[in-house]
Amino acid sequence: MTGTADDLSASRTLWELLDRRADLTPGAPALIQADEPAPGAGPAPAPAPAGAADRMMTFGELRARAERTAAGLYGLGVRPGSRVAWQLPTRIETVVLTFALARLGAVQTPLIPYYRDREAGHALRATEAGFFAVPGMWRGFDHSLMAYRLALALPAPPLVITAYDALPEGDPADLPPPPADGTGVRWIYWTSGTTSAPKGALHTDRGLIAAGSCLAAALRLTPDDVGSMAFPYAHVAGPDYTVMLLLRGFPALLVEHFSLPGSLGAYRRNGVTVAGGSTAFYAMFLAEQRRQPGRRLLPTLRLMAGGGAPRPPELHHDVVRELGCPLVHGYGMTEAPMITMGDPEDTVEHLAGTEGRPPAGMEIRVTDTGGAPVPPGTEGAIRLRGEAVCRGYLDPAQTAEAFDADGFLLTSDLGHLTADGHLVITGRAKDVIIRKGENISAQEVEQVLRSHPLIDDAAVIGLPDPVRGERVCAVVQQVPGAPRLTLGEVTSHLADAGLSVHKMPEQLELVGRLPRDDTLHKVLKHELRERFARPAQPPAR
């Protein structure tokens, strides 16, 4: 069996990709779990002591344990095509579970660990999941209690599985043959996007392999690299990143809850060469470097890489100069995890001012309001087509609305292509806030705010923030004569409604009346952004 990345990228399924990698380099390290405090220990883990014992799993061990776990899940009733929701943190066990489900040919629906009743309940109802894997008590929140509460409210309650330290296991001899077709829907990823209800984006194994293959090539990854996953593995970037490990044969450090300086020890102990994730991570690494002047923060780091949120050019220049390594930034979304990526050998102007170029197989069309392509340098709506683009949404009506007659996905982003094919993002056509790489629907938060008895109307806006990228600001018009609301009262109301913590406003502004236009009476959010953009007071979460 040949062992080049090109050979492996032809794998039909994720399980076949793991199987082939484990045959090639069974003893090579694949996953390294950063030694961290136990879940529930609080929001800010202390730095790990020198010599802390990080766990390691090889590619061969990953395959073997995934097969045993697949057998255990098979014994619980998981079958090819079964819909399995999981809400798990970034851990080795989570990766094992995903490959166990891939071995069975189940349909996975990952949920961000920060999701609460509102978002998780919507996903369970929409997918009609038969199984729901949760971590139990994690970081002070009882996911099992929520899972059982949600299950009891459904016509066909899913089987709740606790999957943190331990996973169900069985005899692999009892397993059916692995799936051979990677073109069927095997993943349902949820995006907050631009609508009040999250949308389930449908992905295939082949689509994720295509995205990971392009990203691995763009970053020039080799077996000598050590990567890092400090973002939620339940993002589409989780399996996408794992594809890169399998293709190139390098290990990655898994960080369950990233913090600085708390996570630095694990990065240094394991010699991480490629780090990042999103703009928020760049900013955090830079801030920590500035707290330790005269010493390189990560001596082995050769590349900072990421995407998922706007990246100011000045931040790019500061990171390169002060962290001492290149920074490449790309453009991706839940529906298409790899659209463009900067090239380490690009010019400084391209790296700082564009999102890079699309790889082979990804088509970008920039159009006017009527859908006609516009010339390079002209701003328009961005449309996408390619193997890495999702196959649609769980709701057929959303699919029909999101794709044009030529099969291009209509994004909510505006931008233009340069003459040499680099993409520049100039804005968003729809109302989305990107906080620490997470998409937040302003409309969803506004709907919950308006249910408060003291709130007459509300607008939610994103404001520039040096750490988060954007912070959430709630602009509230109260009921006449009502006592003044506080930020704590507003966030408590949102939490009681089951909204995720990452959607909570960090800033509250009370106004007599929201500004609206004279025709459609739409809230003039650009006026609110100009009026209330100022340094945020609460610390970043």
Automatic annotation (TrEMBL):
Name any Gene Ontology BP term: fatty acid metabolic process
Residues in AMP-dependent synthetase/ligase domain copies: 20-394
For region Disordered, the annotated ranges are: 30-51
Ligase as UniProt keyword: yes
A GO molecular function annotation here is:
medium-chain fatty acid-CoA ligase activity
Q: Where are the transmembrane segments?
A: none
SUPFAM superfamilies reported for this sequence: Acetyl-CoA synthetase-like (SSF56801)
Its keywords, alphabetically, are: Ligase
Domain AMP-binding enzyme C-terminal: residue ranges:
444-516
Regarding protein family, the annotation reads:
Belongs to the ATP-dependent AMP-binding enzyme family.
Protein's recorded name: Cyclohexanecarboxylate-CoA ligase
Q: Which organism is it from?
A: Streptosporangium nondiastaticum
